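S.,

As promised, the magnesium ion run. Input:
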Amino acid sequence: MTAESVPPTAAPAPTDFIRTIVAAHVAEKRYSQIVTRFPPEPNGYLHIGHAKSICLNFGIARENNGRCNLRFDDTNPAKEDVEFVDSITADVKWLIAGWADHCLGFKPKGTHPAKVTSSGQPDYYLAAVNPGPDSEPFFASDYFDALYDYALELVRRGKAYVCDLSPKETEAYRGAPDKPGRNSPFRHRSIAENLDLFQRMRAGEFPDGARTLRAKIDMASPNVWLRDPLLYRIRHVPHYHAGDKWCVYPLYDYAHCLSDYLEGISHSACSLEFVPHRALYDWILEALDLPRPLPRQYEFAKLVPSYMLLSKRNILRLVQEKVVAGWDDPRLPTISGLRRRGIPASAIRCFVISVGVTTFNSVTDIAVFEHAIRDELNTLAVRRLAVLKPIKLVLTNLTPGEVIECNATNDPQSETPSTRKIALTREVFIESDDFAEFPPSKYFRLKPGGEVRLKYACIIKLDEIVKDAAGAVTELRCTAQLDTRSGQSNADKKVKGTIHWVSVTRCLDAEVRLYDRLFTVPEPGAEEDFMKVVNPHSLDVVTAKLETSLAGAQPGDYYQFERLGYFTPDAKDSTPGQPVFNRTVSLKDTWTKLPAQS
Ligand code: ATP
Ligand code: MG
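Predicted complex:
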């Protein structure tokens, strides 16, 4: 599929400073192809912040007939796991489906294609292929051989040395931002000694922490990242992807620029905290004197939506301490959580793209996200009737067993709306909130002596309120004005309130999960301990009464329960014929009306 044949889901291609740079490089033909990458560490599930990075990197590839490699940045064996590789791969594919799948860079399965010649140069760039059964994502750990060879080359060039300082001493020697560091006493080892020691590090002769390989740059540099940064450390632990072949592991900064290089990446976009690392990124590539063109790093501000806590480390804590029921809990901002909650990929894309790409950190109002969700779902969702907190209403002028068929609209947003039949019976449920015995002024729903329209049916009048011994309302007795039905003589009669309803005898009982914000403050990440601002009422489970047609609802279907919000069947807990529904979002922005948190 070509970029042109993909239906545009987001308005015209966005512009930002990174795209401007890319356009200039395209104009001057600096690279034979624009190649970006999305490089998650497989140490957790992806979240909405990652969606911003995905949409930027895949967006640039898509707009320039390029490709974007999915690469696992897996150089830290301690925290990484194949569970996360699988979830991240699935989430990326879901997020870009129908929008940028044709740009997804994968490699032939099982290949370890980063070949390095004796001169330290790769003998070919990796060829990416579209994902299929015989292809898989890229893994930085597939380059361990190449990275090791490059490290030997740095040693040979006198640009790296083996250092015996302990981690604590290394830290002390590094100095501070306003205080230069001190040279390691091991900095002047001979090349021969460094080669010998590094090879013995790799052979497993030394324990964890005994030695490191460091770049020889400048201990007095104002940029602390250039003060002889570590390139390799000893870790006697197996790696989930590379197996037990290695006991020395490269550090992120060293591995990242070279992985970009090996894959022929042209533009390497990352978030702002990497600005001071850029000099090191360039230094490593230059020190190896690699053939041009070299990849370059560009930094942009992270997405931080209000009321959400991002960062896999923080989300992991919420999962481990059972604040939520797993990484895909619909209250989490993980891609899997958002999907399970019923948020379409297109809504996530529209949101993260609309926020734009800048170099200024800021918090994005969650209302902007909800607006994007409602916008998408308004088009995608089929309308149905459901009652979340029911109260029984008896239409006393209908006989038991009598059924009046009413036409209900499925898709009023469509140019050619379709309808279905729903059954009006003597007993129906209405929302208990739609009735008030002592109504405030301007209350247009059901009240003593008042009239409302039952949507798609007729106007009713409340005659009698029935209560139990404790005084609780158990039943509302009404008269149905059947001549106000569509097509009847009095169909035009106006009342101020219209409420939704479901037949008592023709309905399905179903669990419905109503979510609220997971945190009570707009910036949980700025708190000393975000656990203290977890909203204890973030989940409300009700047994709702649904229109029977909803028995066939499937995960992935989007519904609007009229007047209540958008809902979707839960992908984990629904069973055939018995869906469990998640509320994706309410119909109106209720949050902005909440009182400010103290
Ligand atoms: P986390 O703290 O959530 O683990 P990370 O940056 O450590 O985030 P990585 O797996 O390294 O996670 O991220 C992959 C890519 O996603 C990186 O290029 C990173 O810059 C980018 N990224 C992470 N969080 C955000 C965010 N909130 N907004 C935009 N990009 C992000
Ligand atoms: Mg990380």
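The chain has three domains: 31-300, 312-382+510-585, 386-499. Residues 39-41, 47, 49-50, 52-53, 73, 270-271, 302-303, 310-313 surround adenosine-5'-triphosphate (ligand 1) (CB under 6 Å).

- D.
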